Amino acid sequence: MPSNGDAPVTAYDRLASSIRKQILSGELRPGHRLPTELALSTHYQVSRNTAREAIRALAGQGLLVVKRGVAGGTFVASPTTAQVSESLMSGLALLTDSADLSVSVLMEIREMLEVPAAELAARNRTDEELGAIHESLFDPGRIDPTRVFVNNRDFHTGVLRATHNPLLEVLAEPVFRVLKERFLRERASADFWVRVDAEHREIVGYLDDRDQAGAREASRAHLRYLRSVYEKIDRIQG
Amino acid sequence: MPSNGDAPVTAYDRLASSIRKQILSGELRPGHRLPTELALSTHYQVSRNTAREAIRALAGQGLLVVKRGVAGGTFVASPTTAQVSESLMSGLALLTDSADLSVSVLMEIREMLEVPAAELAARNRTDEELGAIHESLFDPGRIDPTRVFVNNRDFHTGVLRATHNPLLEVLAEPVFRVLKERFLRERASADFWVRVDAEHREIVGYLDDRDQAGAREASRAHLRYLRSVYEKIDRIQG
DNA sequence: ATCGATTTGTGCGTATGTATC
DNA sequence: TGATACATACGCACAAATCGA
Protein backbone atom coordinates (compact mmCIF):
# COMPACT_ATOMS: atom_id res chain seq x y z
CA MET A 1 0.00 0.00 0.00
CA PRO A 2 1.88 3.05 -1.19
CA SER A 3 1.37 6.15 0.87
CA ASN A 4 3.80 8.77 2.03
CA GLY A 5 2.82 11.77 4.05
CA ASP A 6 5.94 11.56 6.16
CA ALA A 7 8.21 14.26 7.40
CA PRO A 8 11.40 14.63 5.40
CA VAL A 9 13.77 11.77 6.14
CA THR A 10 15.97 11.84 3.08
CA ALA A 11 18.61 14.47 2.44
CA TYR A 12 17.10 15.82 -0.74
CA ASP A 13 13.73 16.05 0.96
CA ARG A 14 15.17 18.13 3.79
CA LEU A 15 16.90 20.41 1.34
CA ALA A 16 13.77 20.76 -0.77
CA SER A 17 11.67 21.57 2.28
CA SER A 18 14.17 24.16 3.38
CA ILE A 19 14.20 25.93 0.05
CA ARG A 20 10.46 25.60 -0.36
CA LYS A 21 9.92 27.24 2.98
CA GLN A 22 12.14 30.15 2.02
CA ILE A 23 10.20 30.63 -1.20
CA LEU A 24 6.75 30.47 0.33
CA SER A 25 7.72 32.77 3.16
CA GLY A 26 8.65 35.38 0.60
CA GLU A 27 12.30 35.26 1.62
CA LEU A 28 13.12 34.23 -1.93
CA ARG A 29 11.06 36.07 -4.46
CA PRO A 30 10.25 35.13 -8.07
CA GLY A 31 13.24 35.74 -10.31
CA HIS A 32 15.73 35.31 -7.50
CA ARG A 33 18.73 33.24 -8.43
CA LEU A 34 19.67 30.45 -6.04
CA PRO A 35 23.26 29.45 -5.36
CA THR A 36 24.81 27.04 -7.82
CA GLU A 37 24.39 23.34 -7.27
CA LEU A 38 27.94 23.16 -6.02
CA ALA A 39 27.42 25.98 -3.55
CA LEU A 40 24.16 24.47 -2.31
CA SER A 41 25.68 21.04 -1.91
CA THR A 42 28.69 22.27 0.03
CA HIS A 43 26.61 24.57 2.20
CA TYR A 44 24.11 21.86 3.09
CA GLN A 45 26.82 19.21 3.36
CA VAL A 46 25.35 16.96 0.70
CA SER A 47 26.52 15.81 -2.68
CA ARG A 48 25.76 17.79 -5.78
CA ASN A 49 23.51 15.00 -6.90
CA THR A 50 21.38 15.28 -3.81
CA ALA A 51 21.10 19.01 -4.28
CA ARG A 52 20.04 18.40 -7.86
CA GLU A 53 17.27 16.06 -6.80
CA ALA A 54 15.93 18.62 -4.38
CA ILE A 55 15.97 21.22 -7.13
CA ARG A 56 14.26 18.82 -9.50
CA ALA A 57 11.48 18.16 -6.99
CA LEU A 58 10.85 21.86 -6.51
CA ALA A 59 10.97 22.43 -10.24
CA GLY A 60 8.28 19.77 -10.53
CA GLN A 61 6.20 21.76 -8.07
CA GLY A 62 6.59 24.76 -10.30
CA LEU A 63 8.60 26.66 -7.71
CA LEU A 64 11.91 26.70 -9.57
CA VAL A 65 13.12 26.90 -13.14
CA VAL A 66 16.55 25.78 -14.24
CA LYS A 67 18.74 27.13 -17.02
CA ARG A 68 22.07 25.69 -18.01
CA GLY A 69 25.17 27.41 -19.24
CA VAL A 70 27.41 30.01 -17.74
CA ALA A 71 24.68 32.57 -17.20
CA GLY A 72 22.30 29.83 -16.12
CA GLY A 73 21.40 28.58 -12.71
CA THR A 74 18.33 27.91 -10.64
CA PHE A 75 15.72 30.63 -10.30
CA VAL A 76 12.56 31.04 -8.29
CA ALA A 77 9.79 30.61 -10.82
CA SER A 78 7.37 33.22 -12.10
CA PRO A 79 4.66 30.77 -13.07
CA THR A 80 1.96 31.57 -15.55
CA THR A 81 -1.69 31.04 -14.73
CA ALA A 82 -1.73 28.32 -17.37
CA GLN A 83 0.97 26.40 -15.54
CA VAL A 84 -0.82 26.59 -12.21
CA SER A 85 -4.01 25.53 -13.90
CA GLU A 86 -2.30 22.58 -15.55
CA SER A 87 -0.85 21.50 -12.23
CA LEU A 88 -4.27 21.65 -10.60
CA MET A 89 -5.71 19.68 -13.48
CA SER A 90 -3.35 16.78 -13.01
CA GLY A 91 -4.01 16.76 -9.28
CA LEU A 92 -7.75 16.66 -9.80
CA ALA A 93 -7.38 13.97 -12.44
CA LEU A 94 -5.63 11.72 -9.96
CA LEU A 95 -8.18 12.52 -7.28
CA THR A 96 -11.03 11.48 -9.52
CA ASP A 97 -9.18 8.30 -10.44
CA SER A 98 -8.24 7.16 -6.98
CA ALA A 99 -10.61 8.77 -4.56
CA ASP A 100 -14.14 9.81 -4.85
CA LEU A 101 -14.97 13.02 -6.59
CA SER A 102 -18.55 12.34 -7.55
CA VAL A 103 -20.31 13.98 -10.45
CA SER A 104 -22.38 15.91 -7.98
CA VAL A 105 -19.34 17.32 -6.23
CA LEU A 106 -17.69 18.35 -9.47
CA MET A 107 -20.82 19.88 -10.93
CA GLU A 108 -21.51 21.75 -7.72
CA ILE A 109 -18.18 23.52 -8.16
CA ARG A 110 -18.85 24.22 -11.80
CA GLU A 111 -22.11 25.86 -10.86
CA MET A 112 -20.46 27.97 -8.21
CA LEU A 113 -17.83 29.22 -10.63
CA GLU A 114 -19.43 29.27 -14.03
CA VAL A 115 -22.80 30.80 -13.20
CA PRO A 116 -21.19 33.93 -11.76
CA ALA A 117 -18.63 33.73 -14.55
CA ALA A 118 -21.33 34.14 -17.17
CA GLU A 119 -22.64 37.12 -15.29
CA LEU A 120 -19.18 38.67 -15.08
CA ALA A 121 -18.51 37.97 -18.74
CA ALA A 122 -21.71 39.75 -19.70
CA ARG A 123 -20.46 42.76 -17.82
CA ASN A 124 -16.77 42.77 -18.66
CA ARG A 125 -16.39 41.24 -22.11
CA THR A 126 -14.67 43.17 -24.85
CA ASP A 127 -15.87 42.94 -28.43
CA GLU A 128 -12.78 40.96 -29.29
CA GLU A 129 -13.43 38.39 -26.58
CA LEU A 130 -17.03 38.15 -27.70
CA GLY A 131 -15.84 37.44 -31.20
CA ALA A 132 -13.67 34.59 -29.98
CA ILE A 133 -16.67 33.08 -28.22
CA HIS A 134 -18.75 33.33 -31.37
CA GLU A 135 -16.00 31.48 -33.23
CA SER A 136 -16.39 28.55 -30.88
CA LEU A 137 -20.04 27.91 -31.74
CA PHE A 138 -20.89 24.85 -33.80
CA ASP A 139 -22.70 24.65 -37.05
CA PRO A 140 -25.75 22.91 -35.59
CA GLY A 141 -26.70 21.44 -38.94
CA ARG A 142 -23.38 19.70 -39.41
CA ILE A 143 -21.81 18.54 -36.17
CA ASP A 144 -18.16 17.83 -36.85
CA PRO A 145 -17.09 15.13 -34.40
CA THR A 146 -13.46 16.11 -34.70
CA ARG A 147 -14.11 19.75 -33.88
CA VAL A 148 -16.82 19.41 -31.31
CA PHE A 149 -14.52 18.90 -28.31
CA VAL A 150 -12.22 21.76 -29.12
CA ASN A 151 -15.14 24.03 -29.91
CA ASN A 152 -16.79 23.15 -26.65
CA ARG A 153 -13.64 23.88 -24.75
CA ASP A 154 -13.01 27.11 -26.61
CA PHE A 155 -16.46 28.32 -25.71
CA HIS A 156 -15.84 27.52 -22.11
CA THR A 157 -12.43 29.15 -22.02
CA GLY A 158 -13.70 32.14 -23.92
CA VAL A 159 -16.37 32.90 -21.37
CA LEU A 160 -13.95 32.49 -18.49
CA ARG A 161 -11.45 34.78 -20.15
CA ALA A 162 -14.10 37.41 -20.78
CA THR A 163 -14.71 37.70 -17.05
CA HIS A 164 -11.31 39.39 -16.71
CA ASN A 165 -10.67 37.37 -13.61
CA PRO A 166 -7.62 35.23 -14.38
CA LEU A 167 -8.09 33.11 -11.27
CA LEU A 168 -11.42 31.94 -12.56
CA GLU A 169 -9.71 30.33 -15.50
CA VAL A 170 -7.11 28.76 -13.23
CA LEU A 171 -9.73 27.10 -11.04
CA ALA A 172 -12.62 26.39 -13.37
CA GLU A 173 -10.74 24.98 -16.34
CA PRO A 174 -9.35 21.97 -14.49
CA VAL A 175 -12.76 21.05 -13.13
CA PHE A 176 -14.24 21.34 -16.57
CA ARG A 177 -11.51 19.26 -18.19
CA VAL A 178 -11.63 16.53 -15.58
CA LEU A 179 -15.37 16.12 -16.07
CA LYS A 180 -14.94 16.09 -19.81
CA GLU A 181 -12.20 13.47 -19.68
CA ARG A 182 -14.24 11.29 -17.41
CA PHE A 183 -17.63 11.39 -19.06
CA LEU A 184 -17.33 12.55 -22.60
CA ARG A 185 -14.68 10.36 -24.11
CA GLU A 186 -16.87 8.91 -26.87
CA ARG A 187 -20.33 8.37 -25.64
CA ALA A 188 -22.02 11.65 -26.45
CA SER A 189 -24.72 11.53 -29.09
CA ALA A 190 -25.22 14.09 -31.83
CA ASP A 191 -28.42 15.16 -30.09
CA PHE A 192 -26.38 16.04 -27.06
CA TRP A 193 -24.10 18.34 -29.01
CA VAL A 194 -26.98 19.98 -30.81
CA ARG A 195 -28.56 20.88 -27.53
CA VAL A 196 -25.24 22.03 -26.04
CA ASP A 197 -24.75 24.30 -29.00
CA ALA A 198 -28.26 25.69 -28.72
CA GLU A 199 -27.71 26.51 -25.06
CA HIS A 200 -24.33 28.04 -25.83
CA ARG A 201 -26.02 30.25 -28.39
CA GLU A 202 -28.56 31.34 -25.84
CA ILE A 203 -25.80 32.33 -23.43
CA VAL A 204 -23.93 34.16 -26.18
CA GLY A 205 -27.06 36.12 -26.96
CA TYR A 206 -27.06 37.50 -23.45
CA LEU A 207 -23.34 38.24 -23.66
CA ASP A 208 -24.04 40.21 -26.84
CA ASP A 209 -26.57 42.32 -24.97
CA ARG A 210 -24.48 42.55 -21.82
CA ASP A 211 -27.49 41.07 -20.03
CA GLN A 212 -25.95 39.87 -16.80
CA ALA A 213 -29.06 38.28 -15.30
CA GLY A 214 -29.90 36.59 -18.55
CA ALA A 215 -26.42 35.16 -18.96
CA ARG A 216 -26.43 33.97 -15.38
CA GLU A 217 -29.72 32.12 -15.64
CA ALA A 218 -28.96 30.67 -19.04
CA SER A 219 -25.67 29.38 -17.69
CA ARG A 220 -27.44 27.91 -14.68
CA ALA A 221 -29.89 26.09 -16.94
CA HIS A 222 -27.08 24.84 -19.15
CA LEU A 223 -25.20 23.39 -16.20
CA ARG A 224 -28.37 21.79 -14.90
CA TYR A 225 -28.73 20.00 -18.21
CA LEU A 226 -25.09 18.92 -18.21
CA ARG A 227 -25.48 17.61 -14.68
CA SER A 228 -28.40 15.44 -15.70
CA VAL A 229 -26.46 14.03 -18.63
CA TYR A 230 -23.34 13.32 -16.60
CA GLU A 231 -25.31 11.71 -13.82
CA LYS A 232 -27.03 9.44 -16.29
CA ILE A 233 -23.69 8.41 -17.79
CA ASP A 234 -22.34 7.92 -14.30
CA ARG A 235 -25.16 5.54 -13.36
CA ILE A 236 -24.55 3.50 -16.50
CA GLN A 237 -20.77 3.17 -16.33
CA GLY A 238 -20.43 3.21 -12.55
CA MET B 1 15.51 36.95 -17.56
CA PRO B 2 14.55 33.46 -16.42
CA SER B 3 11.71 31.87 -18.31
CA ASN B 4 11.27 28.35 -19.54
CA GLY B 5 8.23 27.10 -21.38
CA ASP B 6 10.32 25.00 -23.73
CA ALA B 7 9.77 21.57 -25.09
CA PRO B 8 11.75 18.90 -23.31
CA VAL B 9 15.39 19.02 -24.40
CA THR B 10 17.09 17.24 -21.56
CA ALA B 11 16.95 13.50 -21.06
CA TYR B 12 15.24 13.59 -17.68
CA ASP B 13 12.68 15.99 -19.05
CA ARG B 14 11.83 13.67 -21.91
CA LEU B 15 11.51 10.74 -19.55
CA ALA B 16 9.36 12.72 -17.14
CA SER B 17 7.07 13.86 -19.94
CA SER B 18 6.72 10.33 -21.18
CA ILE B 19 5.74 8.96 -17.80
CA ARG B 20 3.52 11.92 -17.04
CA LYS B 21 1.63 11.35 -20.24
CA GLN B 22 1.06 7.73 -19.38
CA ILE B 23 -0.28 8.67 -15.98
CA LEU B 24 -2.62 11.40 -17.15
CA SER B 25 -3.96 9.27 -19.97
CA GLY B 26 -5.00 6.71 -17.42
CA GLU B 27 -2.59 4.15 -18.80
CA LEU B 28 -0.93 4.06 -15.39
CA ARG B 29 -3.43 4.21 -12.60
CA PRO B 30 -2.92 5.29 -8.98
CA GLY B 31 -1.17 2.59 -7.00
CA HIS B 32 0.56 1.16 -10.05
CA ARG B 33 4.19 0.33 -9.46
CA LEU B 34 6.63 1.60 -12.04
CA PRO B 35 9.73 -0.36 -13.10
CA THR B 36 12.77 0.04 -10.89
CA GLU B 37 15.18 2.87 -11.57
CA LEU B 38 17.57 0.41 -13.15
CA ALA B 39 14.88 -1.01 -15.42
CA LEU B 40 13.69 2.46 -16.43
CA SER B 41 17.20 3.66 -17.12
CA THR B 42 18.11 0.68 -19.29
CA HIS B 43 14.79 0.76 -21.13
CA TYR B 44 15.06 4.46 -21.93
CA GLN B 45 18.81 4.27 -22.55
CA VAL B 46 19.72 6.78 -19.88
CA SER B 47 21.68 6.56 -16.67
CA ARG B 48 20.02 5.68 -13.42
CA ASN B 49 20.72 9.19 -12.22
CA THR B 50 18.74 10.67 -15.08
CA ALA B 51 15.85 8.33 -14.39
CA ARG B 52 15.95 9.37 -10.76
CA GLU B 53 15.71 13.05 -11.65
CA ALA B 54 12.71 12.39 -13.85
CA ILE B 55 11.07 10.50 -11.01
CA ARG B 56 11.90 13.29 -8.60
CA ALA B 57 10.31 15.88 -10.85
CA LEU B 58 7.11 13.87 -11.14
CA ALA B 59 7.12 13.23 -7.41
CA GLY B 60 7.28 16.99 -6.98
CA GLN B 61 4.23 17.30 -9.16
CA GLY B 62 2.46 14.89 -6.85
CA LEU B 63 2.16 12.25 -9.54
CA LEU B 64 4.52 9.70 -8.00
CA VAL B 65 5.50 8.55 -4.54
CA VAL B 66 8.74 6.74 -3.79
CA LYS B 67 9.43 4.14 -1.14
CA ARG B 68 12.81 2.66 -0.49
CA GLY B 69 13.70 -0.84 0.62
CA VAL B 70 13.22 -4.19 -0.94
CA ALA B 71 9.43 -3.90 -1.22
CA GLY B 72 9.75 -0.27 -2.24
CA GLY B 73 9.78 1.35 -5.61
CA THR B 74 8.03 4.12 -7.45
CA PHE B 75 4.24 4.21 -7.44
CA VAL B 76 1.65 6.33 -9.16
CA ALA B 77 0.34 8.55 -6.38
CA SER B 78 -3.05 8.50 -4.76
CA PRO B 79 -2.95 12.09 -3.63
CA THR B 80 -5.04 13.40 -0.80
CA THR B 81 -7.18 16.47 -1.21
CA ALA B 82 -4.88 18.20 1.26
CA GLN B 83 -1.87 17.61 -0.99
CA VAL B 84 -3.62 18.96 -4.06
CA SER B 85 -4.76 21.94 -2.04
CA GLU B 86 -1.25 22.57 -0.77
CA SER B 87 0.12 22.43 -4.29
CA LEU B 88 -2.46 24.92 -5.50
CA MET B 89 -1.65 27.16 -2.59
CA SER B 90 2.03 27.41 -3.49
CA GLY B 91 1.13 28.09 -7.10
CA LEU B 92 -1.23 30.89 -6.13
CA ALA B 93 1.32 32.30 -3.72
CA LEU B 94 3.85 32.69 -6.50
CA LEU B 95 1.23 34.13 -8.82
CA THR B 96 0.36 36.82 -6.31
CA ASP B 97 4.05 37.56 -5.80
CA SER B 98 5.12 37.81 -9.39
CA ALA B 99 2.07 38.62 -11.42
CA ASP B 100 -0.97 40.52 -10.56
CA LEU B 101 -3.70 38.83 -8.64
CA SER B 102 -5.46 41.85 -7.26
CA VAL B 103 -7.47 41.87 -4.09
CA SER B 104 -10.57 42.24 -6.17
CA VAL B 105 -9.81 39.14 -8.21
CA LEU B 106 -9.07 37.06 -5.14
CA MET B 107 -12.10 38.26 -3.23
CA GLU B 108 -14.33 37.68 -6.21
CA ILE B 109 -13.36 34.01 -6.11
CA ARG B 110 -13.87 33.83 -2.38
CA GLU B 111 -17.37 35.19 -2.81
CA MET B 112 -18.17 32.69 -5.52
CA LEU B 113 -17.03 29.79 -3.39
CA GLU B 114 -17.72 30.74 0.18
CA VAL B 115 -21.18 32.24 -0.13
CA PRO B 116 -22.61 29.02 -1.60
CA ALA B 117 -20.41 27.12 0.85
CA ALA B 118 -22.17 28.68 3.80
CA GLU B 119 -25.49 27.74 2.27
CA LEU B 120 -24.36 24.16 1.72
CA ALA B 121 -22.93 23.93 5.20
CA ALA B 122 -26.25 25.03 6.67
CA ARG B 123 -27.89 22.19 4.82
CA ASN B 124 -25.33 19.41 5.19
CA ARG B 125 -23.50 19.98 8.48
CA THR B 126 -23.46 17.26 11.10
CA ASP B 127 -23.65 18.11 14.77
CA GLU B 128 -20.02 17.10 15.12
CA GLU B 129 -18.92 19.47 12.38
CA LEU B 130 -21.00 22.22 13.92
CA GLY B 131 -19.23 21.60 17.21
CA ALA B 132 -15.85 22.01 15.56
CA ILE B 133 -16.95 25.33 14.10
CA HIS B 134 -18.12 26.52 17.51
CA GLU B 135 -14.70 25.64 18.90
CA SER B 136 -13.09 28.03 16.46
CA LEU B 137 -14.92 31.10 17.73
CA PHE B 138 -12.96 33.64 19.73
CA ASP B 139 -13.63 34.96 23.15
CA PRO B 140 -14.52 38.46 21.98
CA GLY B 141 -13.69 39.95 25.37
CA ARG B 142 -10.14 38.64 25.32
CA ILE B 143 -8.63 38.44 21.87
CA ASP B 144 -5.59 36.18 22.04
CA PRO B 145 -3.21 37.35 19.33
CA THR B 146 -1.49 33.99 19.21
CA ARG B 147 -4.70 32.08 18.69
CA VAL B 148 -6.56 34.45 16.45
CA PHE B 149 -5.04 33.28 13.18
CA VAL B 150 -5.51 29.61 13.84
CA ASN B 151 -9.05 30.19 15.12
CA ASN B 152 -9.89 32.18 12.05
CA ARG B 153 -8.56 29.48 9.81
CA ASP B 154 -10.30 26.74 11.75
CA PHE B 155 -13.61 28.52 11.33
CA HIS B 156 -13.04 28.80 7.66
CA THR B 157 -11.99 25.19 7.24
CA GLY B 158 -14.82 24.01 9.44
CA VAL B 159 -17.46 25.63 7.27
CA LEU B 160 -15.90 24.28 4.10
CA ARG B 161 -15.73 20.81 5.55
CA ALA B 162 -19.35 20.94 6.65
CA THR B 163 -20.42 21.42 3.05
CA HIS B 164 -19.45 17.78 2.41
CA ASN B 165 -17.93 18.86 -0.87
CA PRO B 166 -14.24 18.01 -0.60
CA LEU B 167 -13.36 19.96 -3.74
CA LEU B 168 -14.55 23.12 -2.11
CA GLU B 169 -11.86 22.78 0.51
CA VAL B 170 -9.26 22.07 -2.17
CA LEU B 171 -10.05 25.23 -4.10
CA ALA B 172 -11.16 27.70 -1.46
CA GLU B 173 -8.51 27.10 1.17
CA PRO B 174 -5.59 28.21 -1.01
CA VAL B 175 -7.34 31.43 -1.97
CA PHE B 176 -8.11 32.12 1.65
CA ARG B 177 -4.57 31.40 2.79
CA VAL B 178 -2.96 33.49 0.08
CA LEU B 179 -5.08 36.49 1.01
CA LYS B 180 -4.30 35.98 4.66
CA GLU B 181 -0.57 35.74 4.05
CA ARG B 182 -0.60 38.83 1.93
CA PHE B 183 -2.72 41.17 4.00
CA LEU B 184 -2.94 39.96 7.53
CA ARG B 185 0.63 39.40 8.56
CA GLU B 186 0.64 41.87 11.44
CA ARG B 187 -1.45 44.82 10.63
CA ALA B 188 -4.87 43.81 11.86
CA SER B 189 -6.27 45.72 14.80
CA ALA B 190 -8.15 44.22 17.72
CA ASP B 191 -11.28 45.94 16.45
CA PHE B 192 -10.96 44.01 13.25
CA TRP B 193 -10.89 40.68 15.02
CA VAL B 194 -13.79 41.61 17.26
CA ARG B 195 -15.91 42.34 14.24
CA VAL B 196 -14.75 39.21 12.42
CA ASP B 197 -15.72 37.15 15.42
CA ALA B 198 -19.12 38.81 15.63
CA GLU B 199 -19.81 38.06 11.99
CA HIS B 200 -18.60 34.50 12.42
CA ARG B 201 -21.04 34.10 15.28
CA GLU B 202 -23.85 35.38 13.14
CA ILE B 203 -23.04 32.83 10.45
CA VAL B 204 -22.80 30.08 13.04
CA GLY B 205 -26.23 31.01 14.32
CA TYR B 206 -27.69 30.27 10.91
CA LEU B 207 -25.75 27.03 10.70
CA ASP B 208 -27.25 26.03 14.05
CA ASP B 209 -30.74 26.58 12.64
CA ARG B 210 -29.92 25.08 9.27
CA ASP B 211 -31.05 28.39 7.79
CA GLN B 212 -29.53 28.26 4.32
CA ALA B 213 -30.62 31.68 3.13
CA GLY B 214 -29.52 33.27 6.38
CA ALA B 215 -26.11 31.64 6.27
CA ARG B 216 -25.67 32.64 2.66
CA GLU B 217 -26.47 36.29 3.23
CA ALA B 218 -24.46 36.53 6.43
CA SER B 219 -21.49 35.05 4.61
CA ARG B 220 -21.95 37.51 1.78
CA ALA B 221 -21.96 40.41 4.20
CA HIS B 222 -18.90 39.07 5.97
CA LEU B 223 -16.96 38.82 2.75
CA ARG B 224 -18.03 42.30 1.76
CA TYR B 225 -16.55 43.59 4.99
CA LEU B 226 -13.32 41.65 4.47
CA ARG B 227 -13.06 43.01 0.96
CA SER B 228 -13.28 46.57 2.21
CA VAL B 229 -10.57 45.93 4.80
CA TYR B 230 -8.23 44.22 2.37
CA GLU B 231 -8.71 46.90 -0.23
CA LYS B 232 -7.88 49.54 2.30
CA ILE B 233 -4.70 47.72 3.32
CA ASP B 234 -3.87 47.24 -0.33
CA ARG B 235 -4.12 50.96 -1.04
CA ILE B 236 -1.82 51.72 1.87
CA GLN B 237 0.91 49.17 1.23
CA GLY B 238 0.66 49.15 -2.55
C1' DA C 1 34.96 33.93 -34.38
C1' DT C 2 37.35 31.20 -30.98
C1' DC C 3 38.52 30.26 -26.58
C1' DG C 4 37.64 29.65 -21.95
C1' DA C 5 35.21 29.89 -17.70
C1' DT C 6 31.06 28.63 -15.40
C1' DT C 7 26.99 26.04 -14.78
C1' DT C 8 23.96 22.31 -15.40
C1' DG C 9 23.48 17.46 -17.57
C1' DT C 10 24.75 12.57 -17.48
C1' DG C 11 27.12 8.13 -16.15
C1' DC C 12 28.74 4.79 -12.84
C1' DG C 13 29.93 3.05 -8.26
C1' DT C 14 28.96 2.58 -3.25
C1' DA C 15 26.05 3.17 1.03
C1' DT C 16 21.84 2.54 3.37
C1' DG C 17 17.28 1.26 4.30
C1' DT C 18 13.63 -2.49 4.44
C1' DA C 19 10.96 -6.65 4.06
C1' DT C 20 11.48 -11.48 3.95
C1' DC C 21 13.29 -16.02 4.99
C1' DT D 1 16.73 -12.56 15.34
C1' DG D 2 20.06 -12.46 11.99
C1' DA D 3 21.37 -12.90 7.28
C1' DT D 4 20.17 -11.76 2.70
C1' DA D 5 18.40 -9.78 -1.36
C1' DC D 6 16.74 -5.81 -3.62
C1' DA D 7 15.19 -1.32 -3.83
C1' DT D 8 16.32 3.60 -3.42
C1' DA D 9 19.77 7.23 -1.46
C1' DC D 10 24.05 9.27 -1.99
C1' DG D 11 28.76 10.60 -3.84
C1' DC D 12 32.34 11.54 -7.39
C1' DA D 13 33.91 12.26 -12.19
C1' DC D 14 33.28 13.67 -16.79
C1' DA D 15 30.42 15.66 -20.76
C1' DA D 16 27.82 19.27 -22.79
C1' DA D 17 25.91 23.71 -23.17
C1' DT D 18 26.04 28.62 -22.82
C1' DC D 19 27.75 33.28 -22.76
C1' DG D 20 31.28 36.78 -22.57
C1' DA D 21 35.99 38.42 -23.53
TrEMBL record, chains A, B:
The residue ranges of the HTH gntR-type domain are 9-79
The entry's protein name is FadR family transcriptional regulator
Q: Which InterPro entries match?
A: GntR_C, TF_FadR/GntR_C, Tscrpt_reg_HTH_GntR, WH-like_DNA-bd_sf, WH_DNA-bd_sf
Q: Which SUPFAM superfamilies match?
A: GntR ligand-binding domain-like, Winged helix' DNA-binding domain
A GO molecular function annotation here is: DNA binding
Record key words, sorted:
DNA-binding, Transcription, Transcription regulation
